[in-house]
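anyone seen this seq b4? input:
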Amino acid sequence: TGRKITEIIFTVHSSDVESKEKKMNELLKLVKEEYREEKRLKKLINYWYNEKTFSYVRYNILYTNKQKTKNYVGYLTDSLKQHWGVEIEIDEREERLKKEKEMYLS
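predicted toks r here
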């Protein structure tokens, strides 16, 4: 038809239940200990893990952990909705680039 392909989008879905459970456990280990057993929190993390990515949820948990809040689950919910964890993501990326640059220059 004369059209050319300009991009290909791949969506990868893992059907490995063990892998998902392992990733969920990793995320739950990042949550402040006193909130780990809350069903609402587990549902929240599971929902966002399925909607976004492991890294997306991880960064938002790490961001929430750094905040002083009385409503941990509520704050994490807002963080996941607004992706406030992008600050942590940027910090980690800058740190990684700094280390790579130092290794390159050594």
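The mean pLDDT is 88. The chain is about 65% helix and 0% strand. kinda curious what u guys think
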